[in-house]
Amino acid sequence: MDETRPEVGEGKPARRPVPLWWRLTVGGVIPLLAAAACLVVLWSLVPPVVFYPLYVLASGTLIIVGVVWLAAVVFGSIRYGWRRVTLVAPVIVLVTVGLAAVELPGRFGWWVSKDDLQQAAVACADPADGADLRSRRIGVYRVYSVQRVGDRGCRFTVEGGLVDSVGVAYLPGERPYLGDPRRGGEIGYRHIEGDWYAFVQRF
């Protein structure tokens, strides 16, 4: 009878020590890049309509970071075994998706800006100097133009969208068309609260 029975676990390769460069890459560099891209994504969702160029740029960066993360995780799992540090970047992305799903960036933008917008709407005017206006911010919104609507209304065109003009409008006593614009030059509104509406003007 063979007396040289192997001990339990004998023959299994020992787990290699995790090098510092891999820990820093997966637990530091990649999460930081993911967090930066996610913050830009969230910022692109602050305007009344998504600021698409910024959103696409940040989303593309996030995809590239995701590919690098996946390669690092596969490599590390094969050589060093699974490590919890690999979950940091996915958690950041999932939190971002959750915030975007409940429209928190847009709500935040409106909440921070509405008091300043209300004051600007009361004294609504269309400045002759458009250069000064383009550098102006009301709340968190970068304002491109201000236009009087009727006797008491005001429309603020702000940064956002792609080729269509987008913004917010103060329309007391008005009942504007709600929905997407149907033809070039037409404005479609979405109610925000009270006498305030978000709008898109078709290019």
TrEMBL record:
Keyword Membrane belongs to the record: yes
Keyword tags: Membrane, Transmembrane, Transmembrane helix
UniProt protein name: DUF1109 domain-containing protein
Keyword Membrane included in the entry's annotation: yes
Source organism: Rhodococcus parequi
Taxonomic superkingdom: Bacteria
Listed transmembrane segments: 20-46, 52-75, 87-112
